[in-house]
Prior knowledge:
Two copies of one chain form a homodimer. Chain A is mainly beta. Helix content of chain A is 14%, strand content 38%. Chain A starts with 10 loop residues before the first strand and ends with a strand. The A-B interface holds A 1-8, 11, 18, 20-21, 33-39, 71-80, 88, 97, 99, 102, 104, 106-107, 109, 111, 113, 128-129, 167, 169, 171, 185 and B 1-8, 11, 18, 20-21, 33-39, 71-80, 88, 97, 99, 102, 104, 106-107, 109, 111, 113, 128-129, 167, 169, 171, 185.
Amino acid sequence: MNFCSHCGESIEQLVPAGDNRLRDVCSSCGTIHYSNPNNVCGAILTWGEKILLCKRAIEPRYGLWTLPAGFMENGETIAQAAAREAMEEANAEAKQLDLFGIFNLPHISQVYLMFQGELKTDQVSPGEESLETDLFAVEDIPWQQLAFPVVKHSLELFINSGGQQKVHVTTAVKLAERKFEWLDQ
Amino acid sequence: MNFCSHCGESIEQLVPAGDNRLRDVCSSCGTIHYSNPNNVCGAILTWGEKILLCKRAIEPRYGLWTLPAGFMENGETIAQAAAREAMEEANAEAKQLDLFGIFNLPHISQVYLMFQGELKTDQVSPGEESLETDLFAVEDIPWQQLAFPVVKHSLELFINSGGQQKVHVTTAVKLAERKFEWLDQ
């Protein structure tokens, strides 16, 4: 942030009175511009024993497989955001969405909120952000072609949870590039 | 948003290519400025049968009682945010925090993530944002002096849950000023 989005004057970094963190503060009008984590909402949608994946038509990780998921928008709930992403990326509709996992990614200030649900039909098709959509049996999941560590983690937790209705809360601890350990909470 | 925080030029509202929502876009450098929901993390902390509440020393709702809670910061997990808020507002430390509820407030684009936990000691005291801190037996909770509907909802769910380890997911539907109905998911 270089300029105040309110008045257009220059920004300085300082700790405002009563605060304990550096913030972007306007040197002219005094507006404090906060930056906070974003939520990414998505879903593991099943048709019988098969799981819906989408092949990404956008960067980052173009051409790799992912679960339908994306940034939550203003004015919606976390379940609405997950349902919208499934529709936008795979023209997919779920019968019901249940919260399945919350995954902290503090190194990029994101929180993933993943739901699980059953597809209403097996008629799925790529939206604008997908090259392909497909339903994968567990043994056919393209583990080496998954777009993000959090997608792999979600799928592993889902497959190993055996249908338990528990909300998993885990945190990604970065060990190396694209290599993470997932700790409870 | 009036000015681009990147280059300082003027902003126009338009739907970018490949998008389906109005965004703040810079007319000069083309930067798209997204606005997304914020997370508020907090905790219901108990000492025996008593619950910690804080009397607000800041607006909005100065002088009314609340659960320790506040905006999640970049670089932290949801549990770390809840623990930090309990420390900042009440010098309170929990033995362990377990996720208890996720409350959608789409009318103000906020998501509350509330934890439950036991206090390590009953030595709590007001931080900068609190006038008082106190431990309340359920029958002494100042229901008419609570700061926010989501605080009342959290306390009611907690008291009625009887210690079940379920994560509640509900949404505030605004019926009138300061009057909400809470729907599952």
